[in-house]
Amino acid sequence: MQLIMKLVAGLFAVYAIVAIAAFILQRRLMYFPDPERVSPASFNLPGVTERIIDAPDGARLISWFAKPAPGQPTILYFHGNAGNLASRAERVRRYVSRGYGVLFMSYRSYSGSTGSPSERNNVADAKLAYDALIADGVAPDEIFVYGESLGSGVAVQLAAANEIAGLVLDAPYTTIVDVAALEYAYLPVRPFVFDRYETVRYLPRVTAPLLILHGEADRVIPVEMGRAVYNAANAPKEIVTFPRAGHSDHHIHGSYDEMFRWIDAVMKGQMRETDQRIEGAAQ
Q1: What is the rounded average pLDDT for all residues in the chain?
Q2: 143 pairs with which residues across the strands?
């Protein structure tokens, strides 16, 4: 009996250590920055330049920027929790080749940006990026905000408080807490998450047209969360899911075309409310 009690006590001690470590290191488990600073010229992106956005607290945010062609919108893009701007170079290329302007902002500690990422910092920095476009003379109704994975929570909060033309959410979640509870089901994470990114809390304040893109084989953020976000959102809204796509590969299944179609429709005032599946073949 004593041996069993010792084993139970030992297991509990190990569990407590794991739980405490997860609590203390939770931002390291949420953010996976690649700090390498890479010039857009390295990827032969004509018209794309590096732009530094200075935060009031002294942090410097590295961004990639391109002006739009006449009559075209600008994509204000917030990326996911891993990699850097260089990881999104092909997306930049596709948008710029379409004539869109772009402003891809890297979070603190990503892509050469200084400081440390957090929900508070990321959302505040997103507003700085939005204000930079406004200062450039880009009208709010020409700005489409794009949130990729983690960035969807940033994008929703920005869209809830500012006028924009439209909002694109790529693999969105209901809250980061829900994602953490799935990933760490063996830990009592819900009360202890610092950066909560409560998408469904802010969605009712978003009045801009919404497009959701989500892979049905996504094992990081289940497509059911994308559908829950869609159901909680105001109209006009669309959700497009891709049966064979995972978390970050729906672009090879046709999501670029769906996004371009939707932006054209928004610009022309021809939005529709749909829930569709795209079987697109890999390209």
Answers
A1: 90
A2: 74
